[in-house]
Each structure stands twice: as structure tokens, then as C-alpha cells.
Amino acid sequence: MSMLTLNPRVAGPxxxxxxxxxxxxxxxxxAEAAAGRTDTAVPRISGTTAPLFLDLxxxxxxxxxxxxxxxxxxxxxxxxxxAVFSPVDVFSTVSLTDLSFKRSGxxxxxxxxxxxxxxxxxxxxxxxxGRHDNAALVKxxxxxxxxxxxxxxxxxxxSRTVIGGLAFKGDALVGLCxxxxxxxxxxxxxxxxxxxxGADYSVRSTWFFAAEYMYGERRDxxxxxxxxxxxxxxxxxxISDLMSVAGVVIATVPDRxxxxxxxxxxNILQSVDTVWYLRYYRLGAAPYAPDxxxxxxxxxxx
Length: 302
What we know:
Layout: E1 2-6, E2 9-12, E3 15-25, H1 28-35, E4 52-64, E5 69-75, E6 106-114, E7 119-126, E8 135-144, E9 147-156, E10 161-172, E11 174-185, E12 190-203, E13 207-218, E14 226-238, E15 243-253, E16 257-269, E17 272-282, E18 292-300
Antiparallel strand pairs: 1-3, 2-3, 3-4, 4-5, 5-6, 6-7, 7-8, 8-9, 9-10, 10-11, 11-12, 12-13, 13-14, 14-15, 15-16, 16-17, 17-18
């Protein structure tokens, strides 16, 4: 795959307009599988057989007023505290197969109202689009003795699901974060519960450790609610300012999905980064999922 990312940005004291557009082209077996899909039209560059894709991740305008900050458009809204797992994040999902855990965007209208120097209220409304289950959120947040605390209320319109919960993040010898939400399905009149806990720790700015665990209750045909568990573990060793090695494991129970990655990062020039990686998959019936993968990602910024 080759990809070009365009990130134009215009900003002033009272406004900002920003866009992030990924233009990428597939090659080899993945290109043949994508070109053979019948559910979507796949464009191609003239004179080639490789399919071309456009991914508009963000495109929004922001206005800053003394009483509030207003934004409209496609944005990456991260309401939770987890790096990978978050029951509070209803607007953005993490691409677990991406080496940098790239997030998706949502078409939303947001408003942030400050309440004092360390707190405020966020209001987010997702624009309805097709059969997507658009959501609306109100979050009150603040900082107490170095801990970031927030209370959230969420409503999913099409599934008629009401979500209420809380989140926290702070330091106590190690970095800690957590979230807990209660869900009520107005269609089935059924309650469910989800929670996440995470921790991170570093040793002499050389070793970096991070872990997250997420628990939830999932609806099933045979069993109305069943437990599921997600686990994320990460270890990174910084060899020098230009080199590092890392290992990441993500697993899901009882689905028995697993994804393990080992990678070596090397900044070979000021604006050129390389990542060599090996990866193991166990993703069940996921489409186009291999058993193993090895590769090189080269990033040039200009």
C-alpha cells in the first residue's frame, strides 16, 4: 500500500479550519480482493489496475467565542481516557490493525462551555447519516487535586440506548485511568454494564509499559447478556533518540481473537521514519485476515 496524507490548516485567534485526507492505493492480493468487491465502486488511477481509495478523516471549522468554542464538521472526538479501549467513546473507533492506532472521524457539531479555569461542559451532537446510529453527548469535566474527572450522558437515537457513566485519569505512583458506564436499551428494556481500567509506567524514560482491560456485557441470540473481555498490553524500549523496539498484544475473550505485534522504529533522517514489524493474527472469520504478516512502513513528512 502507498498513501499520501494531506493535512492543510488555516488558523487565527478566533477561528480554525483543518482537514486530514488520506489518498491510498492497494497492490497485490489485497488489491485484487478489494477490486472484486461488489458492494462498492472502486476507482483506479488511469493506466493501472490498483484500486484507489479516499479517506476524509477530518474536515471541520472552529469558532472561538468568549463564552464557548463551537466546531462543525468531521472531527475525531475522543471523549474517553483509554488509548485503545473506551466504553465512553461512541463517536470514534480505533483501527487496531494500524500500527499507530489511527482513529476514525464523525460528522458532528460540538460546543465547549468553560466553567472556571479547570472545568467545563462539552455538548456533542452527531449528524444523522444513512442507517448510522448517531449519538448525542453531554459531558461535565474538571480537575480535582491533579485528577481529571468527568461525568457523561449519551443517547443513541436509532437504537434508543441511554448511556450514563464516569471517567477519571491521574497519577498515583503509576498513571491510572478508568471508565464505567451503564447502558439501558429502551427497545428491549434491558440494562448492560461496561468498564475499563488502564495503567502506564515508565522507567528512566527508557522503558514504557501500558495496559488496559475492558469488561462488558454483550447481547446474544441464545443468551440475552454474556460477558466479554478485552486486554491490551504494550512494552516499549527506547534504545536512543532515533531507535526503539516495542511489543503489543491485543486479545478478546471469549471470541478468542488475538493480535500480537513486534516492531522496530528507526528515524533515519529528520523527516523520515521507518518501522519494521512482524505480526501474528488470530481473527476468526474476519475478511482478508492473514495468519501472519511482516513488513516495512516508511513515512516521509514535508
